[in-house]
Design a protein that fits this description.
Order of helices and strands: HEHEHHEHEHEEHEHEHEEHE
Number of strands: 11
Number of helices: 10
Radius of gyration: 31 Å
Largest sheet: 9 strands, parallel
Distance between the termini: 105 Å
Shape: globular
Helix content: 25-40%
Length: 405
């Protein structure tokens, strides 16, 4: 019987050790060869680049490494825009005159898709509800407007007035806010509203938005996205089940809108009252919740709309810069850490006193000092102050009075 001696074991160990050493040497030589080839290629590649030759290494970026926006168009770094109504679009050459403001710095136009009267401002591909009820009026062709505005290099927002809608409320009382006696409820101005709890109302408003999104609008902005604020609120009755709070309902509607509109490549935004970040106004507008589901929040910071003493200002309308600054401070606190950009609506109209270009410029300066995403000018008559549309660095914050504790 064969036996294994200590000498044999030592020899086997020596042979294994030498085999491992030979294997390591082969691996090192292979690695050096590869590095050598790569080095030569890199040298020739750099040389080709320096000499303008075509023998350089072609670097192909990894597609997954490049950031991909879910939106089909880029938003301006600083939005500088104006609002247009449907009737203004019927005036010959009017859109062209607004697009000409691009030379003054304009880069954004917001156009009514559905206004405060309940009119849908186009008929092509409008929802059947609007066509059947006579709400759709052909103020413009969406595709033609998109083509012209985009050719001018201007960003296009479509505005949808959501729940103030006397036409649809009358035609579809099942979608409307009622009174305790079952009749339609009206505001002080005699306007009926759609029920913010009604998912049928949600669908109708977003159907209007979807038609515009498919035509090529870059962003859809929902206005009057709230519960009523004027009229006899004590007699309001909301048909159907509505166990959730008002603020959750508004946010849920906007989340529903975003779910339908984002896949079409458009942004979703919402207009809110300028005081909604300062305190609860009882209308369901909580900027912090809204900012979690939309891409931009547009506070309506019109100084003429603030009561005397607000922000410790004796007359906010007389101090447009500080008024806007106070409001934006509260919005930045409410939306801190969220995804939504803040873009204020600024007053370019006279109410309570005559507004001068310097008053509009003071609001713009406040918006820039707060590093917002830009600003929009509002004037229902469509008359704007071009000089404030010019781009510029943000100035220092205007002096603010100390709060009285």
């Amino acid at each position: 019987m064969a036996t294994t001696t200590n000498t044999d074991v030592a020899e086997l160990r020596r042979q294994k050790r030498e085999a491992r050493q030979r294997q390591v040497r082969r691996r090192r030589l292979s690695a050096l060869a590869v590095l050598g080839v790569l080095g030569i290629t890199a040298v020739f590649g750099i040389g080709g680049l320096l000499l303008g030759g075509s023998s350089g290494v072609t670097l192909t970026p990894v597609a997954s490494a490049a950031p991909v926006s879910p939106f089909r168009t880029a938003s301006p770094a600083e939005i500088r825009g104006i609002h247009l109504t449907g009737p203004l679009m019927t005036l010959t050459g009017k859109l062209d005159s607004y697009l000409a403001l691009k030379k003054d710095g304009l880069n954004t136009i917001e156009l009514d898709l559905k206004d405060e009267s309940g009119n849908v401002t186009f008929t092509k591909d409008a929802p059947a509800v609007a066509l059947e009820d006579g709400a759709a009026v052909r103020y413009f062709d969406p595709n033609e407007v998109v083509a012209k505005v985009h050719k001018a290099g201007v960003y296009l927002i479509g505005r949808v007035v959501s729940f103030e809608d006397p036409i649809t409320a009358r035609a579809h009382p099942d979608m409307a806010i009622r009174q305790s006696d079952g009749s339609l409820w009206h505001t002080n101005a005699g306007l009926a509203w759609l029920n913010p709890y009604s998912t049928s109302a949600w669908k109708y408003n977003v159907d209007v938005a979807v038609a515009a999104a498919k035509a090529g609008f870059d962003e859809i902005q929902f206005d009057y996205v709230r519960f009523p604020s004027d009229g006899d609120l004590s007699v309001i009755r909301y048909p159907g089940k509505h166990a959730q709070p008002m603020d959750e309902t508004v946010a849920a509607f906007l989340a529903y809108a975003a779910k339908r509109l984002h896949p079409l490549g458009v942004r979703v935004s919402a207009d809110v009252f300028g005081l909604s970040a300062t305190r609860d106004l009882g209308i369901g507008q909580h900027p912090g919740q809204i900012g979690e589901v939309v891409d931009a929040v547009y506070p309506m910071t019109y100084p003429s709309h603030y009561n005397a003493g607000e922000y410790n200002l004796p007359d906010p309308n007389a101090e447009p810069g500080p008024t806007v600054s106070h409001s934006l401070t509260d919005f930045q606190t409410q939306l801190a850490g969220g995804r939504a950009v803040i873009i204020p609506w600024l007053q370019d109209f006279s109410l309570g006193r005559t507004y001068r270009p310097a008053d509009v410029a003071a609001q713009v300066a406040a918006a820039r000092a707060h590093h917002t995403g830009g600003f929009m000018l509002w004037n229902a008559a469509g008359v704007y102050t071009p000089r404030v549309l010019k781009s510029g660095p943000p100035p220092p914050l205007p002096p603010l009075p100390a709060p009285q504790l």
